[in-house]
């Protein structure tokens, strides 16, 4: 398997290295060979190549079986015209990664960490499926001195393909999809709702479907997070709601993500570059390792291996071998070592 | 003072009646005369006039000193082309109500009701200022069979006038403004941020200003709500964030809102039409009475009267004279009577 690694900025390189270690361990135990190719993206790519997404990075991503991303961005690049985030948007668009999958769960044993009261959040277990290559993110932008315009565009095809990902995922989970829009105000949301309803009727009538307005949904995520299984929504709403959901477990260091296109996948922890702790071996590797488990499952079709990695992560959490963000005392690399040891055990 | 009352749908008429009672009591005690004119809006206006915002309603609102709105909407009108919400959007646009003010606070004594852990939320006290007549809500919308487009437009003038409201409000509070945008992705947000920065430098350098991305802000509202004083943002982000913030006190029945233009104001509770409990005298009138207090303060320049109403509400809450949503046993009209008695006391 050819894996492209995009370490990126801040703590990106540390956590990406953890991901590589875990894949190597999986390879040794299960007899697979992973070839790793490292490429530039984000701030470091701006520094070294004056381009947040250089052509050779793109070529490598296009040819890879899967891509592992650390994180991009940092205050260092905040005031310049070329920005690290452009690298992220470019890789999504170029690889056609139209569905961003963000699982979030709060096991009863971890609910004490949540900012929510335990009885509200304990046992919550959801998957947010965010459309990732459409909407305001990639619409036409115009600007004069005193006026700016962003276009939000969606087609039936774009909506169908991401809704399909949500319905398929629901069938493997608790069989319920909540589709989020603002159909009482905007046209793209009306098309969104119509299209989801039609697809549901035609192909997924066995899945329970409900609709929620984005403003209500923001409330529901805080007041009754256990009510949801799979949530599907457009790009900007998904950006907001998936970040909102990500704080419910009490540590964003535990969550991974998968961005999927037709056959292609990019995997990254959700926590970002955290420049304040970069280079100190404090970063929690678990979000990246959860992302690697998704890579094994979705891009490499190695579900036994994915289960083994998830189990190794759980065992180490249960044993209290934790980084400081979770109240532990271990360095990030020590947590990775513990998980690698579990894989070998 | 000429007050137009738009009872609207669901529990709208009950809570609007509570507002009228409170204003009458204030009038008796402080020697003011309020003239009330009732007009149609929303679903009931569709039923009776086939128009969610009839011309005579508009004329009355234009001529009024202030407008009191109950709520609009309900499942009854969900499947028809004319929708109650169109009435709400129309009155905002027609009256030029460009700034929506949503105060939210969680006094220590009430923190036990919050879905958040008490230590996180106790003492939170913020004002969200939402731009209300621009952005995706009022941009050009186009639709073909398989494609929809919404335009999001902002001008410097639109941004400046709402930012001004936020800075002025901050000066009377804790002197801090958090401006929320998605400047790393969309053009209108870049114009938003530039404009807020310029206005701050030119006229409000004494106010502390920070910027947050909308996705991070959704997280912060849950993880550190006490960190914010005044929050200002564009229409759609404001819709989402103000609803998110509204659940932090544990009951949306306690919150009011003001929508202000140049000189004009519309006041409404934030809870919506709650058709399930309509007509049962269960609705909590406090959100409406808080809105009436804002009306006294912002549109009628009666701040002593506003303080008196706020104090009467506080006293009744403290005395435990509560509706069921707050764990009490009183009918909505009994809570209103208790507050009216406090005003007279
Ligand atoms: C960095 C930014 C462009 C990006 C987004 O908004 O998509 C990030 O917030 C994310 O969710 O991955
Ligand atoms: C009903 C709807 C159009 C409205 C909005 O989105 O503005 C509501 O959610 C609100 O916040 O007042």
Automatic annotation (TrEMBL), chains A, B:
Q: How is the quaternary structure described? A: Homodimer.
> Per its record, what are the GO molecular function terms?
3-isopropylmalate dehydrogenase activity
Recorded catalytic activity of this chain's protein: (2R,3S)-3-isopropylmalate + NAD(+) = 4-methyl-2-oxopentanoate + CO2 + NADH
The protein's name is 3-isopropylmalate dehydrogenase
Q: Where is this site: Important for catalysis?
A: 137, 182
Quick one: which gene encodes this? leuB
Q: Where does substrate bind?
A: 92, 102, 130, 215
> What species does this protein belong to?
Asticcacaulis currens
Extract the HAMAP family matched here: LeuB_type1 (MF_01033)
């Amino acid at each position: 398997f050819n894996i492209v690694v995009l370490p990126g900025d801040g703590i990106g390189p540390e956590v990406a290295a953890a991901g590589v270690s875990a894949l190597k361990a999986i390879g040794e135990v299960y007899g697979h060979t992973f070839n790793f190719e490292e490429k530039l993206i984000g701030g470091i790519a701006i520094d070294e190549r004056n381009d947040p997404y250089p052509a050779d990075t793109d070529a490598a991503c296009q040819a890879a079986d899967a891509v592992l991303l650390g994180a991009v961005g940092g205050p260092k690049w905040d005031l310049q015209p070329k920005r690290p985030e452009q690298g992220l948007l470019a890789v999504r668009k170029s690889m056609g990664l139209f569905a961003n999958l963000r699982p979030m769960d709060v096991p009863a044993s971890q609910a004490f960490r949540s900012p929510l009261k335990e009885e509200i959040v304990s046992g919550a277990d959801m998957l947010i499926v965010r459309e990732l290559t459409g909407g305001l993110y990639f619409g036409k932008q115009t600007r004069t001195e005193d006026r700016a315009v962003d276009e939000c565009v969606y087609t039936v095809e774009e909506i169908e393909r991401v809704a399909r990902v949500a319905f398929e995922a629901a069938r493997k989970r608790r069989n319920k999809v909540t589709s989020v829009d603002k159909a009482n105000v905007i046209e793209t949301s009306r098309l969104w709702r119509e299209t989801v309803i039609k697809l549901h009727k035609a192909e997924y009538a066995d899945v329970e479907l409900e609709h929620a307005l984005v403003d209500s949904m923001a409330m529901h995520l805080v007041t009754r997070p256990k009510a949801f299984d799979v949530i599907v929504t457009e790009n900007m709403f998904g950006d907001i709601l998936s970040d909102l959901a990500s704080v419910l477990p009490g540590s964003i260091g535990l969550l991974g993500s998968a961005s999927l296109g037709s056959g292609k996948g990019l995997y990254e922890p959700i926590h970002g570059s955290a420049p304040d702790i970069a280079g100190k071996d404090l970063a929690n590797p678990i979000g990246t390792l959860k992302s690697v488990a998704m890579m094994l499952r979705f891009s490499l079709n190695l579900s036994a291996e994915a289960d083994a990695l998830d189990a190794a992560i759980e065992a180490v959490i249960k044993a209290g071998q934790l980084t400081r963000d979770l109240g532990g005392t271990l360095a990030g690399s020590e947590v990775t070592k513990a998980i690698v040891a579990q894989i070998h055990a």
